[in-house]
Structures are given as structure tokens and as C-alpha cells.
Amino acid sequence: MSEQTIDAQNSLNILDDLIAIALRKGAEAADAVRIQGTSINVSVRQGETEEIERSEAHDLGLRVLIGKQQAFVSSNDAKPEVLEELVDRALAMAQNMPEEKFCGLADPSELATEFADLDLYDKTTLSPEDLIQNAKTAEQAALEVNGVTNSEGGGASSGRASIALVTSDGFKGAYSSSSFSISASVIAGEGQRMERDYDYDSHHHFSDLRLPEEIGRKAGERAVKLLNPRKMSSGQVPVVFSNRVSASILGHFSGAISGAAIARGTSFLKNRMGEQVFPNNIRIIDDPHRPRGAASKPFDGEGVVNNRLDLVEDGKLQSWVLNTSSAKQLGLRTNGRATRGTASPPGSGTTNLYMEAGNLPLEELISDIKSGLYVTSLIGFGVNAITGDYSRGASGFWIENGEIAFPVSELTIAGNLNDMFLKLTPANDLEFRQGTNAPSLRIDGMMVAGT
């Protein structure tokens, strides 16, 4: 396997041994996962190094099943004698657990047998001194922006991670990834008229990062633009979510189509499969095999094949986000969206989730707005997953006569996600920055509460 680095093969051998011990001692089925990682994080402020932190993780998790009883145990020690104790503890726990009707391993026919090379691992090695220099450069560039008066600091990091999974039904797989990041956060203005903002970049490959000078300059410019915000009166107006914050709208959607939420009946979309939930020009995709994608992985947390999934086509809801357990509860088949830690049952979640870009530049998207809000920051979390009611604090800029006019703050925006989804219009400025991404989104008729 081309991505087996950071001792991934050794992890597979350890997990093989652990599964064999579990079956020998009485487990009817078992799976085991090992997650390893190392990282270095540095922070600087006013040109001085404030923190250098190095961390390592070596976590091992075992699930054993006896009939419909299951138990989970974890350890950070992989010595042979510890593996024996781990199995004994897991089996003793399983025998005293209540039966879970829908627990179990994935069907062998669903397991991945080929693994795509997703180009997630970069061999570039950065010393603490390299990271410190990147952080200082970003901070200095921000401080040089006219109007910036103070710094909350610059940061940089690099890391390596490896995930290995083995099941008693025959799955064996591992993959590794690297990560690099640079950030800066600064303050503009003085006294009671200070505003802060930030910028950052994070990628699997160091060469994909924007230059620290660019990151710092953008952080400084953003902070300065927020100076002297106005308070606005309440009203119902179009709201445009910048592509810095629009992913949060998509995040509410992904939570609402989680298989577990649908099975529990705790989602405002629980009865909407196949229905129009977005305008007919909207497509939402989850693609775990996106090369160098922030959340890419060659198989899911149960070893299942995880192909691209079109969750919304022509505005219509096409699929839930399913692992084996939630699929069984709904009488369906898993679609390879299991997530996995070392001490709990598999969950379900999206990978590289994104809404396809629209056709209009941001300038055209707002050109006919006589009065409205352009959101660059969201505060708090006021979303009811059962009803779809939405209310969050917001700040950004007021739109007047089709142009971004002046900064505003201390506002609350409210609506219902069912209505918000149907009134949504995307811009053409989609950027892939993280696991969930969306272009700028215009939603008409939202309530904005101010003074």
C-alpha cells in the first residue's frame, strides 16, 4: 500500500494479533483500530516565541461481539501481555452488556479490497525553527498593515498520522496523512474601538499552503475593515453568508441527514427523502476520494467501500449518511460513511462534503440587494435539529444598493432551515479549505435583529 508510512504495517500486525487473541478466547466477531500521530505546534506573539508543543498519540481500540452483545476497550500500550488483558476485559464487559439489535460488523461483501492513492502524505520535514519562522513571518505581515495595533499571535504546525483497521471478517487496511498549517490573528483600532480578525491555511502538503506573508496580510486587512461597526435596526432582509462561514449551513444539513438522527426521528428532514429540499440547481456531494482532500480516506471506519455520494441532485434529497448500524435500523445498506474512534461504536459522518458552485460572482449575487447583511462571522449555536429553527449571532458588513457598504456587529439572524435551504442561491466562489466547503450563499427573507 503506497500510503503505509509511520509504522502502519506494524500497526496492522499488532491488530492481527489482537483479533486472533479475541477469537481464540471466545469472541464471535471483533474489529480493532490503531491511531498513531505526532505533531509540533508553535505560537509566537510580538515576534517572540510563546510556545513550542510536541505531542504523540498511540491509541488502540478493540470491539468484541458475542451474539448481539458488544463491548469496547482501548489502550495506548501495545505490548503482548497488554493485548491479552485488553481482550479479557472486553469479553467480560460484553457478557454483561444488554443486547443491541443492530450491532455487528459490516457484511464481507461490502468491504474494500482496493485502496485509492489519495496523495495525503508529504515527506517534507519542518523543524521547530522552520515553524517559528513561518509563524513570525505571518504575524509580522499582519502587523505591517496600516491600522493594525496589536497581535494575538501567529502560529504554525506540522503533523503525521496513521490509521489502521483490521476486522475478523477479513478486512485489513491502513493509510497515513500529513498536515501543515499557518495562522495569524491581530487587533485593529484602540480603546473601545478595537476589532480582531484572523486568517489561516491548512493542507496535507506543505507546498499547497499559501505564503505566510499572504496569510498575515489578509488577517490584518480583515481586522482593519471591521473598524467602527454600526448597529442596525431589526428587519427582514437578504443575508449573504461569505464562503468563510457558509460551510456551517452545509454542516446543519449533514447533521440532519445522519442515519442515526433519521433512525431516532430527531431530524427536521426525516420524512423528506426524494423531495425538493433545495432549489433545482443545487447539487451537494460527499467525496472521500478527493486527492489531497482535507477529509479524504480510502475506506470508511468499518472497512467498507466509500465511493463518491451525491446527497442532493437537482435540489432533491437522495441519500442518508449511513454506517452499518444505522443502515440496518432503516432497512438499508451502508454507504460507507462510518466514522471510528478507539473507545466507542462506529458513528457516521461525511468526508469531503461540498456544495457545487453557482454561476454568479459574489458581486453579481449582491448587486440587486437594496439593503441586506453580508456575514463574515457567526457566534453561538442556536439550531434546533428537530424543527430546523435557526438563530445565531452574526457580524460582518451591511449591503446598500448592491454594494458592501460598512461593518456591522451585534446582530442576530434567524429563520428555519427548511425555508433557508429552499431560498438559497450559491455564488461561484467555492474554495476547498476544510472537510466541509460551500461557496458564498445568499438566502432571502431572513430576520435580522439588531438594536
How would you portray this structure in words?
Helix content is 21%, strand content 37%. It is an alpha+beta fold and 451 residues long. It folds into 2 domains: 8-223, PmbA/TldD fold (2-Layer Sandwich), CATH 3.30.2290.10; 229-451, no CATH class. The strands form 4 sheets. A 6-stranded antiparallel β-sheet has the order 3-2-1-4-5-6. A 5-stranded mixed β-barrel has the order 7-14-15-16-19. It has a 5-stranded mixed β-sheet with strand order 10-9-8-13-18, with helices on one face. Helix 1 packs across helix 2 and helix 3 runs parallel beside helix 4. The longest helix has 17 residues, at 8-24. The chain starts with 7 loop residues before the first helix and ends with a strand. Residues 1-5 have low confidence and may be disordered.
The number of distinct helices, counting runs of at least 4 residues, comes to: 9
How many runs of DSSP E, i.e. beta strands? Answer: 19
Shape: globular
Strand order of the largest sheet: 3-2-1-4-5-6
Mean pLDDT: 95
Structural class: alpha+beta
Q: Determine Rg (CA atoms, Å).
A: 24 Å
Number of domains: 2
Which range best describes the helical content: under 10%, 10-25%, 25-40%, 40-55%, 55-70% or over 70%? 10-25%
